Structures are given as C-alpha cells and as structure tokens.
Amino acid sequence: MLAGRVMVNALALALVVLALPGVHETTGHPVLGYLVLGALFGLLINAFFKPAIEFVALPFLLGSVGLVVIVVDVAMFWMLDSLTPLLCTDGALWLIGAGVLLGLLSYLFGQRVRPRSADRARPPRREGAPVSAPTYRERIGERLRLLQIYEIFLRYGSNALFDRGLTGDLRRTLQGRF
Predict the structure, then answer these.
(1) Which of 10, 14, 18, 164 could disulfide-link 38, Cβ–Cβ 3.0 to 4.6 Å?
(2) pLDDT, tens digit (0-9, with 9 covering 90-100), for 36-75
(3) Same domain, yes or no: 88 and 51
(4) Does residue 86 sit in the same domain as residue 153?
(5) pLDDT tens-digit map of 142-166
C-alpha cells in the first residue's frame, strides 16, 4: 500500500510538471526524480504536515465548505518546493496552479488506489480477527469528535489567554456589567 501511495504521488507530480510549463523537475533522471519527490510528498509532507495543518484549519474548513483544502494543497506544494532542490517553480501563480492541480490529482488517484470495500458496511468483528479499515461513516464521526475537541481547546485556551493577559481585568469588568 505504501509503494502504491508513492507511485500515485509520483504520477501526480509528473502530470503537474508536464501540464504546467512554469513547474520544472531538475534531476538528470526524471523517473527517479519523480519517485523521490513522490516519496517525499507522500511520506513526509502528506503524512505529517498536512494533517496538522488541516487540524488547525478545521473550523475554517467546515465554514468554507471545503475551500480551505485548496489553500492547504497549495501550502503542501510550496513546502515540497522549498524543501527540495529537485523541483522548482517560476513564480507564485505557477505555485498556486501546481498546488491546486496536485491536490486534485492526488485526490482522484488516491480514490482509485483505495480498496473498493473500504466504504461498505462491515459485519461484526469476531474475537481475534484482524481489524479492517474504518468505514466512511466512522471516519465522519471521528472528524466530528476531533472538531469538538478542537473547539473545547480553542474556547478554554482563549479564556485562559484573556484571563491571564493584560485584558483580564477589562474582560471581568465588562462581564460584570453585562
């Protein structure tokens, strides 16, 4: 499965470089370069940085009906472009276009690589049976729980910040009057 993800990311990056004249791959051996870029993009950036950024942007993601995903994809492509000399872009517009196209291609190809039975309902698990991938409904439930946790942290974190900061006295005075 890991090799499949690397291949999907390498194919998506190759199509981005071929489709956009302002994005260049700078290795002597393009296939090896795309595989290295695909591994770096999939294993480092998409595995570690993208979930963290999506978690921080979760309220905006739900509020904008998913349009923040485009900003996250552009940020991931910018991170890939800055981390490695194997890829270079000619300007900010090419960077934005490449991020949008790479996010779209990664999503489309990623849907093809995933097993077809992942979204179907599962029968009850027997004792000792291996654990299978979560269903679509379970993934939605997990995202909603994460959103609730994020909201709690944000609410209590902002309360603690304002109560202990310079504005604490002003806030308590205003709360007492209203």
Answers:
(1) 10
(2) 888 888 778 877 888 888 878 877 777 777 778 888 889 9
(3) yes
(4) no
(5) 888 887 777 777 676 666 666 666 6
pTM of the model as a whole? 0.60
Look at residue 125 and tell me if it is in a domain.
no
Q: Which two tokens stand for residue 28?
A: 């002597």
The encoded tokens of residue 172 equal: 């308590």
Domain range enclosing 3? 1-118
Question: How many separate domains does the chain show?
Answer: 2
